[in-house]
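During the reporting period the student researcher (J.K.) took over the structure-prediction task from the postdoctoral fellow and processed the backlog of single-chain submissions. One of the processed entries is reproduced below for the supervisory committee.
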Amino acid sequence: MSHTRRDFLQFALNASVALGAAGYAANPLRALAQQKLTQDDLLRFDAKGQVTLLHFTDVHAQLLPVYFRPPDTNIGVGAFAGIPPHLVGEAFLKEFGIARGSAYAYAHTFLDYVDLARSYGRLGGLDRTATLVKAIRADRGDDKVLFLDGGDTWQGSYTSLRTAGQDMVDCMALLKPDAMTGHWEFTFGEDRFTEIVESQSYPFLASNIFDAEWDEPVFEHTKMVEKGGVQVAVIGQAMPYTPIANPRWMFPRWSFGIRPDVLQANVDAARAAGAEVVVLISHNGFDVDRKLATVVSGIDVILTGHTHDAVPEAVRVGGTLILSSGSHGKYLGRVDLEVSDGKVTGSSSKLIPVFSDVVASDPEMAAKIAEVRAPYAAETAEVLGRTETLLYRRGNFNGTWDDLICQGIIEQRDTQIALSPGFRWGTTLLPGQDITRDDLYTETSMSYPAVYRNEMTGQQLKEVLEDVCDNLFNPDPFLQQGGDMVRVGGMTYSCAVNGTIGNRISDMRLSATGEPIDPTRTYVVGGWASVNEGVEGPAIYDLMEDHIRGKGTVRVPDERTVRIVM
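J.K. obtained the following C-alpha cells:
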C-alpha cells in the first residue's frame, strides 16, 4: 500500500476515534467535516532519494483560492473504462481508501459538495502554493527540487484577459519554475506568446511543435539539469491538438501533433547525453499519456495535464509513473525519486490539496497578487447578481454554469438551441453567493469570445454532436482531441458512449415541446468560442453580464439534458 493511501486511511481512522469520543456516531458526516487538518499534515510525505519533482498544472489564471466541484461524470472507454482517472464519487473513495465526508473526499469528489465546501472552504491560491513550494524546497534543499509548470497557466480570468497573461507571468516567476509547457497560452496569438516565452527566465519546452513550412522544431524540447547529484532530463509536450481545439489562425506557422517518434528520439538523445532520469511534462491528457507510456520507452515520470484529473498518487504504467495534478490551483503534485546506477530504484508520490484555510499565505506572493490585481479591483469585485443554486462546470456533459450560459444565449440572441463548448476551466459558486464579474470571467475569459447566431438543420446538429462525442469517447486515446462534450441548451438527447461515430447520438428533442428534432428541418442555433476567423457577435462575457444583471437572482436546477447509454 502506498504512503499516500496510508495517510488517507490513518486520517479516516483518527477521525473515527475522535467521533466516538465526541459522541457523534449518529451524524458522522457532519462530524467528519469538522475534523481539522494542519499545514504539517498536508506536507507530511515519505521523502525518498535524491530528486523531488513538484508539478503544478491547469491553474487557468486563478490567483486566488476557489471553489471547484469535481466531476460527477468522468467516463473512460475501451481499455480505460473503470480505472483511474475515470472514477468518481464512491468508486473514487473506495479505490483510494478515502473516508466519505473527510477533507480528502471534499477535495477529490462531488459527494456532499456544498456542505463540505462550507465546512472546509476554498482551495488553491498562488500564495498558498508558494508556501508549500518554499517549505518543500527548504526541507529537501534547492539542489534536489524541480518545479515544473504543466501549462494552461496564463488564461482564464478577468485580469489575465486584460493583461494578456502578464499577471500570471509576473506571479509565476516568483515560484521559480524550471520549465513549462502549455496549451491555452497559444490563444494569445503567436506574437504575444513568443514575447512572453522570450521574457521568461525558464524555458517553454515542446518536443511536438514544428515549423509548418520547414518542418523544424520551433521551441526547445529538452532541459538537462543536475538535481541531488543526478542528471535529469525534462522534456516538454504541448497539447497536440491545439490547432483543432483552438483557432489555427492565431498561430498559423506552427504544426502540432503527438509525434511519438520524435519524442522517442528526444528521450534516446537525452539518455545518450547522460540522463539518469527522464521526466515528461505533458499537456496531452491522462489517457493519451497512459498510452504514450506503452509506445515510448525510457520515460521514468510523466507529469500530465490538460484533462484536469486529480489522482491522489502516481499511477504506474510499465516502467513509467504518471501523475495528474488537477486544476485551478487546487493541488500541488509531488514525486520523489531514488536513483542508483543510472536507474530509478524507488519512488513515492502524493497529490497535496491546497486548503486555503489551512496553508499560510506567503507574504511575497500575496503582495505580488495584490499588485497585479489592484488596477482592476473595482471591476472584478462588481456584483452582477446572485445565485440560489450551485453553479459548476466540470463533467463529461452539462453543468449548471453552462446551463446558465446556454439560457443566456437563447434569451439574448433569440435562438431555439444553444451550444456551449466543453471547456473544463471555470470555478464553482455555492448557493446564496453573489456572482461577481471575476466569477463570470472564470467561465468565459478568452480571446475569441463572439456569440454567433446561425441556422442549422437537425442533421447538421447531429453531425456536430457526433464529431465532438468521438473526440471524447474514441477508444483510441491518440484520436481524442480533448475537452468535455459540447453543452446544449434548448434540447435533449441520448448518448451511447461506447458506440461508433455516427451512431452515438440519438433521440434528439426540443426541450420546450418534447418534439423530435427533424433532420431536414432548420433550427436557429447560438453558440460561442468558434475556431473560425471573423465570427461576428457580442462577446460571451458581455452577453452574460447583461443576462445576469437582467435576472438579478438566478436559479439553475441541475437538470440533465443528456441520457447516457452505456
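The committee noted the following: The chain is about 35% helix and 20% strand.
J.K. will present the remaining backlog at the next meeting.
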